[in-house]
What we know:
Elements: H1 2-34, H2 43-59, H3 65-84, H4 90-109, H5 121-141, H6 149-159, H7 164-178, H8 186-208, E1 213-219, H9 223-234, E2 239-244, E3 251-260, H10 261-274, E4 279-285
Antiparallel strand pairs: 1-3, 1-4, 2-3
Amino acid sequence: MNALSTDRLLTLVKEYFLMTVGMFVYSFGWIGCIMPAKGMGGGAAGLSLVLSMAVRQLFGVEITVGNMVFIINAALLLVAGFIVGWKFGIKTIFSIVMITLSMNFWESILPPEGLFSGMENILQVIMGGILAGTGVAICFKQGGSTGGVDIVAMIINKYRTVRYGNIVMCSDFLIIGSSLLVGSTLNTVVYGYILTAVFGYTVDMIMSGNQQSSQVFIMSRRYEEITRAILQDAHRGVTLLDGMGGYTREEMKVVVVVCRKRETDKVLKLVRSIDPAAFMSIGSVAGVYGQGFQAIPKL
């Protein structure tokens, strides 16, 4: 029992440490690259930047982006709590607090012009998007959440089912476009849309890039030989499904193999060496979980 408790404690320490690292990387992308390049983005950070500029122009009050992120997320959590219930994970609250602390930290030690003032603005924005996406992906992989759009999605889906991707796209479009109201230029808006694309691609690549796999369906009368070859030579598991030709009405087994993309060619060569006339269908799949692949993620 003590050993299990110790293992669980070490796992929790590792998860919260990596979430902290992720939020510091995310914040550096914004404070060290995106903001010095006069860039803009979506999500809570982008909205915080717009509101900070608006408050400064209207009231002459300076509010750091980090503090504004906390205010926005706290308000969203409060509203969501009354609408969908107080079912927020500790990791979500922890991540929101760490975003605030890390952004304030980088703002306090980094010069306003950033560390890459000699670099073209567009390159700084791209680098910032990569760093921010990397930080968020690290947090997501540990079961954390950065709040913002995630909370908005919870509220919207309470009353109407809307795809998360559509909510993100619409909110980012509105936030980036609204920066024109606080004096941003068209260049800033264009940078914002480029940042959104780079950010999203980076998160997707880190979250699923190392999980990209192929699912191969093989239809052949020599399925027994193919099965043995894949098991013994490719060292991959095989599933046999009952199938029937739609035209010939001939019954046969369908060999199903899930393997890494880099192993696909090896499977194809094995099949071709046994039955050149075999019919095969290959599809890309992301997020293969179980023995020999990724562990089932935490929900």
